[in-house]
Amino acid sequence: MGHGHHHHDHDHSSGAAVDVPPALDLSVPDGELSPSDVSRRGFLRSAGLLGAGAAASVLATPSAAAAAGLPHSHGPAGGGTAKGGFRWLAGDHHIHTQHSSDGQYRVIDQAGHGRAFGLDWVVITDHGSNAHAKIGVDKVNPDILTTREELPDLLTFQGLEWNIPAAEHATVFVHPGRNEVAVLKQFEQTFDGSQLPATNTEAQNEALAIAGIKFLGEQVKRRKVDGALFLANHPARRGIDSPHEIRNWRDADPTVAIGMEGAPGHQAAGIPAPNGRGGARGLYDNNPSAASYSGYPLETYRTWGGFDWMTATVGGLWDSLLSEGQAWWVTVNSDSHVNYLDQSERGPGSDFEANGRYNDPVYTGKVNTTAGDFWPGFYGRTNVGATSFSYKAVMDGLRAGRVWVDHGRLIKNLDARVRVAGDRRAATGTPLGGVLHVKRGTATELTLEIDLQNVPNWAQFIPVLSRVDVIVGSVTGPVSARDTFTAPNTKVVKSYEVSPGTRTLSVTYQLGRLDKPFYLRLRGTDGKRTQPGLMGAAVDPAGPKLDVIGDADPWADLWFYTNPIWVLPK
Amino acid sequence: MIHPSAAAATQAAAAPGLLSGPALAGPALAGPALAGPALAGAAPALGLAGLAGLPVHGVSLEHPDTVAAEHWLASLSPAPVLACTHLVRSPRPHVALSLVFADTAPELGAESPDALTKLGAESPEAVAEHVARRSGRAVRYPGVDLLVGTLRVADVLALSAIEQVEVLGGGEADPQALVDTGDFVRPQWRAGRLTLTTTPAVGGRLVPFETRNPTPCCAAH
To answer: For residue A352, how many other CB atoms are within 10 A of its CB?
Structure first.
């Protein structure tokens, strides 16, 4: 779209302040638009894609992408050049240590295992609390600095797990730098749910959540830190992240609030007793509470093939955001607190409230079969397409949505791009998270290349991919009802069975001539546990199956998910 | 807030002959809980029909959660024959209750001559949801004390006021499927029917969707 690869001198302000293209900027009258913008506006208007909110979505790209610090995330070349143009860095943004009241490990215990199990980046996210806000947030930092020195091949971010006012938890983390502690500390002391009056109303708390996200964006804008990100954790676990809150977080600052956990941690919690905890996979065993959004069905509260209902449901909440054009990404993490089969326990003689941390863990000689967590990197991965091995590149890749996730190392590598049909140049193609703008009537296609797994995972077997699904949804623009959580036009449009013994799955899927704007995303499975999707077999004939309480072997039910790619008219 | 109960006669009295299944050694029902017509046999099939026409009280004591609400409920004497919790999100999240008593509401203490004042603030929302059978989670209902141990789905339907049993994401439960009740069965009003949602569990059994002790928010796990 003639946009090229120049660098935008962008600012990080959010929402309506984003540099909106004239066709989308309704303050520019039709008469002042160029003929091509008039045509574009007419198309968008007839497609229902103009109006409040559109400016904060991919519909406003390239500006929204630019505002997100993504000079390369759009246009025909998309997020980069070739497959080799990205370095896929595996990570985990949800890890607890002895600075959490329910944790026990040192920073380097977690980071060292994460590195050994193949991670390139980790985020230390201890719970927001009185003890953490006053003591722990300071005390953890020297341990993180030491870990960065000891493990130079691992990027170790400092973050925290925010008690979002009126809602669930979220990972919040910043780019390393001299203000990283100060910014996190001020954020926690001002905005953590544990620090707020119990007399606050729901509306007051929801407003504070928005203010907290905006505060983080401000710190970046003022150059206090080089980046700050927010990702909602275990979003459906207790049904208290309502659809409108999720939309509000994102709109508060789409350069900060970028997504949610597609699958929760605690994936060992469903391993049958007596060898395991015998609980619910992901520890998703809750029921609606007074804080829950009343519109959510009971299906919300459980995991499906290990994934959170918001992500696992084709045509569900995640798709409703994507079909609005909202850039909202999914990740996979360990949420490690105490790990399955570990042989240590919390340090004796600890005084967490006074010290802001537990004493160092001690070896017990006993095997913990009731813990529900895996070490970071042992089971789930968030794979980020980065332009270099650096903190900034990981944050930029996450913000760009160049992310795919898997459990149990189901696949080895994935390269998915949408192209103008027939264009096979190595340097072209819009990658995950990107937006391809083409003229109406232009034929586009998906090119997908998956390197199937050929090395064992950490359960010592080589996973076998059985099927890959292409999921497509129309982009219908901003919703008027902010609590919408369905996308009736999204469904599985194509499934590829993978022949045994295949080494590389290479397919091209014709997306047709562009008529209406749409997005696509991909999903794959080992095929061991499936059932028709919650929106019906016509939408998702073989979706993830409800996990069985007390009998959910995480290694016998593996899935991968990618983030979406949009195709929009110029 | 008082409203005629909508516990209409939708539940035909199920045949009491289904009780050959395992572990039906529930405690004998206390008298006042059996507002329905007494049936022959040791395990009467109870519907909601017998409660039709009884007033529905809606109360709110701003209980923070269902555990607190149930704790308060257990202190009521006489106990209600039908009691549901209702989740209210604003202005602050709390749990309200709707209550149906077999006779009159309990004597509600000396400190207040007004029954409803003692019960707490009125909750017309709870009454409306109960009456319309739109939402609400039944804690006390006819037959609840018989739902202990492991029961067939058919037994659950025959023994109690529960009108349907479903499997989450999977439709109606097989009548012969076994439910590990955990001695804790909390059906919900849904589309006019008192519905118990279950999920598959270890050993090919079903378990009620709601467990007695779900994982707390920040458990030391």
So the answer is: 21
* Amino acid A60: pLDDT: 67
Tokens linked to A414: 């994935």
Q: Which residue numbers in chain A have pLDDT < 70?
A: 1-26, 40, 43-56, 60-85
Decide if A16 is inside a domain: no
Residue A68: inside a domain, yes or no? no
Other residues' Cβ atoms within 10 Å of the Cβ of residue A444: 23
- Length in residues, chain A: 570
Where a domain ends, among A333, A365, A380? A380
Does B204 have pLDDT greater than 80? yes
Closest partner residue to A302 (CB to CB) among B87, B168, B217 is: B168
Q: Is A337 on the interface with B (CB under 8 A)?
A: yes
Which of A126, A202, A548 best tests the B interface by mutation, with the highest count of B CBs <10 A?
Answer: A548
- pLDDT tens, A106-126? 999 999 999 999 999 999 999
Shared-domain flag, residues A434 and A497? yes
Q: Which helix (H) or strand (E) holds B14?
A: none
B191 close to A (CB below 8 A): no
Structure tokens of B197? 């949602």
What is residue A45's predicted lDDT score, i.e. its pLDDT? 63
Does residue A338 belong to the interface with chain B, where contact is any CB pair within 8 Å?
yes
Tell me whether B220 touches chain A (CB under 8 Å).
Answer: yes
Both A298 and A418 in one domain: the answer is no
Question: What are the CA-CA distances from residue B138 to residues A256, A272, A495, B60, B103 (Å)?
Answer: 42, 31, 43, 16, 19
CATH of the domain at A434: 2.60.40
> Could you write out the three-class secondary structure of A381-435?
EEEEEECCCCHHHHHHHHHHCCEEEEECCCEEEEEEEEEECCCCCCCCCECCCCE
Co-location of A328 and A441 in the same domain: no
Question: Are A239 and A98 members of one domain?
Answer: yes
Chain B nearest-CA residue for A543: B169
* Co-location of A310 and A170 in the same domain: yes
* Residue A399 belongs to some domain of the structure: no
**A331 and A475 co-located in one domain:** no
Identify whether A2 is part of a domain: no
Is A302–B217 a contact, with Cβ atoms under 8 angstroms apart?
Answer: no
For all residues of chain B together, what is the average pLDDT? 76
**Predicted confidence band at B91 (pLDDT cuts at 50, 70, 90)?**
confident
pLDDT winner (highest mean) among A245-249, B29-33, B105-109: A245-249
- pLDDT band at residue B105 under the 50/70/90 scheme: confident
pLDDT recorded at residue A204? 94
B221 CB neighbours in chain A (<8 A) are 102, 266, 283, 337-338, 371-373
Using 50, 70 and 90 to split pLDDT, how confident is the model at B5? very low
> CA of B15 to nearest chain A CA: how many angstroms apart?
30
Sign of the CA dihedral running B68, B71, B77, B80: positive
Interface residue A288 vs chain B (CB under 8 A): yes
What pLDDT, in 10s, does the model give residues B138-159?
A: 999 999 999 999 999 999 999 9
Q: Are residues A330 and A454 in the same domain?
A: no
Domain count, chain A: 2
Token pair of A296 as six digits? 């959510």
Nearest to A404 by CA among A263, A251, A256, A246: A263
User: pTM to 2 decimals?
Assistant: 0.86
Q: Domain range spanning residue A223?
A: 87-380
Interchain CB contact of A418 with B (< 8 Å): no
Interface mutation target, options A275, A277, A298, chain B, most CBs of B under 10 Å: A298
Q: Is B152 on the interface with A (CB under 8 A)?
A: no
